[in-house]
Amino acid sequence: MIWQDYNPYPKLSHLPREFVFVDEGQAVGSEPFNESAAISSKLQHLLFPFPGSINKLHASNMQFSGLVRTGDTTGTVRFWEVMQPSMFGGMGPLNPNRRQIPTQVSYVLAAHIQGKLPEAAAADEVEDKQESNGDSEDAEEKKRAERSIDVVLVADIDMLHQEFFRLREMGDVPEAGIQFDFDNVTFVLNVLDVLAGDERFLEIRKRRPQHRTLKRIEEQTEQAREKTAQTIEELRDEFDKAKEEEEKRLKDQIAKLEEEMKKEAIPTQEVLIRVAMTQQEGQRRMDAKLERLEQERDRKINQIETDLNLQVRSVQDRYKMWAVLLPPIPPLLVAFVVFLTRRRREREGVARTRLRS
Fold it and tell me: How far is 116 from 128, CA to CA, in rounded Å?
């Protein structure tokens, strides 16, 4: 799997790096979308959850056109290390100890592939030598068409998840504080139209508001956002560490109790009862402590996010104030210069005795 160290949503900094966001902000001078391809031109923002990558073999004669590409702050992680195995079989939660190997390579996440299959190309060479003059051109053309492929290969089926369609139907939700503007649905519709040979609606889909941010304000608040994200991550790590310590302490207590009971030669049934009681009591204490730590963590995170919002609002208010005060100044200066110029010209050629003091 591919990961990328880029997340344009500071409030979602807890998302793993395997959530690959693709847009112009992922790297300086990067070209995330192939503007020469009708499918990907004018796209602005895509999300690939836990994607793979696509490469063209040097020996391949097919036409390979990359449509979507990551930046270079990337790496790989093995599929079997991403999720923890579940005790009931299958895959469990995300593995925090997975090995994320940095590669600093730009990966292709979607590509348009056209050409003949290798087996079909070899068969054509043989049949061309053995074909009879009685074969019709229509039958030959149909046979050759069946041996050609025209596909768009995407390295992540999750980018077609129904959640992206729901977000598209819902539209903007300003009260959420996050504006999702993914082009996943547009990308899918473009793929279907191009492969079907119907490109009437491609240009219409490209006519939408350009997604822009106030770059100067973003630059002013970037340091505060990074500090906030780092602090929130530290708080989550402290909570996870405390949880592991409590679980280890409970296991040690139960193991110690079992060992003491074995030395005293207590019956097995009574040992099980005492262990169960100790485990239940310890679990209750651990849950209470973890709940207290979780509440404290959430309180601190809310306070940090509130402080960040206040800092962002302060920067925005400062720019708003300058936006109100500065624009009138140039017209006022021009008006003042015009007034002085006209005043001076009015006094030219007039006798000094007729001028008012």
Answer: 15
> Are residues 218 and 25 in contact, defined by beta-carbon separation less than 8 angstroms?
no
Q: Which residues contact 315 (CB under 8 A, 6 or more apart)?
A: 217, 220, 221
* Total number of residues shown for the chain: 357
Q: For position 3, what pLDDT does the model report? A: 92
In the chain, where are the structural domains located? Answer: 2-116+149-212, 217-325
Instruction: For residue 85, give both structure tokens.
Output: 């195995």
Neighbouring residues of 153: CB distance < 8 A, sequence distance ≥ 6: 54, 110, 111, 113
Q: Report pLDDT digits (tens) over 139-150.
A: 665 565 567 889
Task: Please name the amino acid found at residue 136.
Answer: S
The strand pair at 19-22 and 46-49 is best described as antiparallel
Question: Which amino acid, one-letter code, is at 268?
Answer: T
Higher pLDDT, 343 or 222: 343
Per-residue pLDDT, 51: 92
What is the SS3 assignment for 6? coil
**Burial 120-151, CB ≥16 within 10 A → b, else e:** eeeebeeeeeeeeeeeeeeeeeeeeeeeeeee
Main-chain phi, psi angles of 264, to 5 degrees: -85, 0
Tokens found for residue 235: 């708080």
- Which pLDDT band holds residue 80 (cuts at 50, 70, 90)? confident
Q: Please report how the helices 268-325 and 215-263 are oriented relative to each other, as an axis angle in degrees rounded to 10.
A: 170
70 phi, psi to nearest 5 deg: -80, 175
CA 135, 138, 141 angle in degrees (round to 5)? Answer: 95
* DSSP character string of 227-268: HHHHHHHHHHHHHHHHHHHHHHHHHHHHHHHHHHHHHTT--H
Count other Cβ atoms within 10 Å, centred on residue 200.
7
Q: With cut-offs at 50, 70 and 90, classify the pLDDT of residue 178.
A: low
What lies within 8 Å, CB to CB, of 43 at 6+ separation is 33, 68, 183, 186, 187
Distance of alpha carbon 26 from its chain centroid, rounded? 10
